[in-house]
Amino acid sequence: MRKQTKTVIVASAVVALIAIASWGLTRPVAAKATAPAAVPVKVISVVKEDVPRYVSGIGSVLSLHSVIVRPQVDGILTKLLVKEGQQVKTGDLLATIDDRSIRASLEQAQAQLAQSQAQLDVAQVDLKRYRLLTTDNSISKQTFDQQQALVHQLSATALGNQATINAAQVQLSYTQLRSPVTGRVGIRNVDEGNFLRVSDAQGLFSVTQIDPVSVEFSLPQQMLPTLQDLTHSTPPAQVQAYIGDGENGTLLGVGHLTLIDNQVAATTGTIRAKAEFSNPAEKLWPGQLVTVKIQTAIDRDALKVPPQVVQRGVDNHFVYRVNGDKVEVIPVEVLYQDSHLTLIKGPNAGDVLVSDGQSRLKPGARIDVVNKEPAMVQSTQESAQ
After folding, report:
1. pLDDT at 29
2. Phi/psi of residue 203, nearest 5 degrees
3. In the chain, which stretches have pLDDT less than 70?
4. Separation of alpha carbons 111 and 30, rounded Å
5. Could you tell me the CA-to-CA distances from 361 to 310, 328, 350, 358 in Å, in that order?
6. Which of 92, 18, 54, 75 shows the shortest CA–CA distance to 197?
7. Could you report the per-residue pLDDT of 362-384, keeping only the tens digit for each?
8. Are 69 and 203 in contact (CB under 8 A)?
9. Scanning 6, 19, 165, 247, which has its CA 20 to 30 A from the CA of 345?
């Protein structure tokens, strides 16, 4: 009996020792498991600078002057003096039409004028003689009046002949097709040797002015007051044209706002406007669709961050500001926002804010910054390029 009691006491002591040892081993592990892990985040510094505001839309490039070269007289196309795509200036000779028939008509009219002029000269000499003879009644007054009427008749005939000559000279000028504008020659529709008619539906080719050009675009009617102010601003409001979406696209040119339409489109609720661009490199091409951006205002000394920095709460917007190795919540007021920047009021310039990883954060959470240097938000002008 005494031996069994001793065995029970020893067994109990062993169990107690094992329990104590287990508790001692597991206690730090449990404490370590319950410690919150640092959240990996990316951060960015608040930038203070002057920030321009923009409004964007889709526009179409238009030539300020585009002409289809058409024949104004019937005839055979004898010579083409320009090539497709060639640059020409106002007054340059582009093509010629067979002018032999018109030139013959001109020479005939000139001969008739010479004949009429000769008859008029004789009649005027006779009239002068008759006027002297009427002083002593050597000839009748009727004869003098008839001679005077003949002079008037021949003068009118000479004027008619001169008008015929002028008309023939105009027709002759139409046989030389000259450029009415400075621009680029388009694709040719007719080859040398073809018979041209004034009634032909298509012309020979077009000549289109490419420098400068205009861009026509539409904006919501709510922008009308802003556009009205911009059209009267000095200097004129700047307009940028891009191929693409305006952020990842290529800048084609910078122009200025010239006018807005005199009415709002009732079907779309938009207002049309035009901007003019200097285009020496010919990056803007008539008929091309482009994205236009207009600078509408400038925010002086604005606090700028990327859009993803600002979080939306139940009642307001907020940001996570880095304070040591932890974060704190700072309420902010959004003053302006577009696809690549947000202007806010609340933090201070130079504050380091969380730009990525906010979904796992809460006030006072520990963080692990994965980008070594706080990134600076790209300036508006750079992003516009």
Report:
1. 47
2. -85, -175
3. 1-35, 245-248, 372-385
4. 123
5. 13, 10, 21, 5
6. 75
7. 888 888 888 765 555 554 444 44
8. yes
9. 247
